[in-house]
Specification:
Length: 474
């Protein structure tokens, strides 16, 4: 570099063959800002918008959209069947309505199964483009369901938007975490859970009878999430592909460095930590093709996979103020504190509900413990399962591992949705003790097997899992 001025970071160029990594790293000039705390660039902000608005928020919207207008939609389901000269009893109508609700989770399970393979086969960005198309098609199906007077179209729409949610919950966080710098991955990882919560909130508001939750406007209510998908899709058209995917999996070094420069705002020759991590992971993943069976059979990767799946299961079986905490605190300590808070809150909530008849004041105590539960969940169990996989897995098995983690999440969601009404009928308030027990076992497992991942690259974590596997074999 002949001169050292404030524009030098954009003037460095090297001749890189597409199939050969010839990049030479150089020391930055004194005028260059500290690259360990890179600024949020426009491209990185666009990636965050794609993950938040284009994927997680629509998924959260569809989780909660049927709750408020349930009576209106039940009436439509009954009318749709009656027009075919079919008479349903109340129990049969309840079964049909359960199918309408739960087919979303079936679709999410299907989407999670396909997510890892698709992300590895065609890339992170093309997978999200395809997923956006699936989401828009599902919204179109909802929009014409009333005109066709077809309950089948609602079921089809729920299935398709479930597939959209399953793929988005796997590949969305993966894309954000692979494109973000290490010091911002905590904040980016929280966006998945934050989007789910905001989506549920918007659905509850729009679902009010005076807004869209009525006989006239419910098709608009069911398809309104398409606006968020459209914004995410338009933004995604101008977003780069994951540099890690291009460099490590595809071997397109030149393109990977160009995409990395777009995301960081500096020449790749100055991005020491990013480039060295790419090179290290490339060496670790040479000649490896990571299928689901290979991930399940590899003892080192299996330890990471179990930790991720257990966290996703615990997230559902434990029955948004997390951004600064997740970004600054150690992941392991945060998840353990969250688990302790949730377990204690569930036990105290159960005791308070059991004794509620003794004093009206206990109603306020129940509210306090409910808030403690939400707070404890929000700082760890809510956001961390979606982001921890990108820090535990190396690039090779990362997409498959995160897809299987989300599969565990949606499966647990489906199981809870099926069993909770029956368990509540049998056990009343004591049903929360079951979830508290699961949460305690989750804490014990993670205390023993989950390493700290903050500011530690996945290659270095291999030694932890190698020693763990060695101990198990002994």
């Amino acid at each position: 570099m002949a001169a050292c001025d404030k524009h030098a970071v954009f003037m460095i160029s090297v001749d890189i063959s597409p199939n050969e990594d010839n990049l030479k790293l150089v020391e930055p000039c004194p005028e260059v800002p500290n690259l360990k705390h890179q600024r949020i660039t426009r491209k990185l902000l666009m990636v965050a918008i794609v993950g938040f608005l284009g994927n997680s928020l629509p998924a959260g919207y569809n989780i909660g959209v049927l709750n408020t207008p349930e009576e209106v939609l039940r009436e439509f389901v009954h009318r749709s069947v009656s027009q075919r000269d079919l008479m349903l009893s109340k129990s049969h109508l309840n079964i049909l309505w359960s199918c309408v609700v739960s087919v979303f989770l079936v679709g999410a399970i299907i989407g999670s199964c396909c997510a890892g393979w698709t992300a590895n086969k065609i890339g992170r960005r093309p997978t999200l483009l395809l997923n956006s198309a699936i989401g828009l098609v599902s919204a179109a199906v909802f929009a014409v369901a009333r005109v066709a007077c077809s309950v089948e179209m609602i079921i089809l729409g729920r299935l398709l938007v479930g597939v959209f949610s399953g793929i988005g919950s796997s590949v969305g966080p993966l894309y954000m975490m692979e494109t973000g710098p290490s010091h911002l991955r905590g904040a980016l990882g929280v966006l998945q859970q934050l989007g789910l919560c905001v989506g549920i909130l918007i659905a509850q508001i729009l679902g009010q009878k005076d807004i869209l939750g009525n006989t006239t406007n419910w098709p608009i209510l069911l398809s309104a999430y398409s606006c968020f998908i459209a914004i995410g899709l338009l933004t995604l058209l101008f977003c780069p592909e994951s540099p890690a995917y291009l460099y490590i999996r595809m071997g397109e070094y030149n393109k990977a460095f160009k995409e990395l420069e777009k995301l960081r705002g500096y020449s790749a020759t100055l991005l020491h930590s990013d480039v060295l991590l790419l090179r290290t992971e490339r060496k670790m993943n040479e000649s490896c093709s990571w299928t689901i069976m290979k991930v399940l059979k590899d003892p080192l990767v299996r330890k990471s996979l179990f930790a991720v799946c257990i966290m996703h299961l615990g997230q559902q079986l434990c029955g948004i103020n997390a951004v600064p905490l997740v970004n600054s605190c150690q992941r392991r300590n945060l998840i353990l504190v969250s688990i302790c808070s949730v377990a204690c809150s569930l036990v105290l909530l159960t005791i308070s509900m059991a004794l509620q008849s003794l004093s009206p004041a206990l109603s306020y105590v129940i509210i306090i413990f409910s808030l403690c539960f939400v707070l404890g969940y929000g700082i760890g169990l809510g956001p961390l399962p979606f982001m921890i996989g990108s820090e535990l897995f190396q690039q090779g098995p990362r997409a498959t591992g995160m897809g299987l983690g989300c599969l565990a999440n949606w499966l647990a969601n489906f199981i809870v949705a099926l069993t909770f009404p029956l368990l509540q009928q049998l056990l009343d308030q004591y049903v929360f003790l079951i979830f508290a027990t699961f949460t305690v076992f989750l804490g014990i497992y993670l205390y023993k097997y989950l390493p700290e991942t903050k500011n530690i690259n996945p290659v270095d974590l291999s030694s932890f899992f190698y020693s763990s596997v060695s101990e198990d074999q002994v």
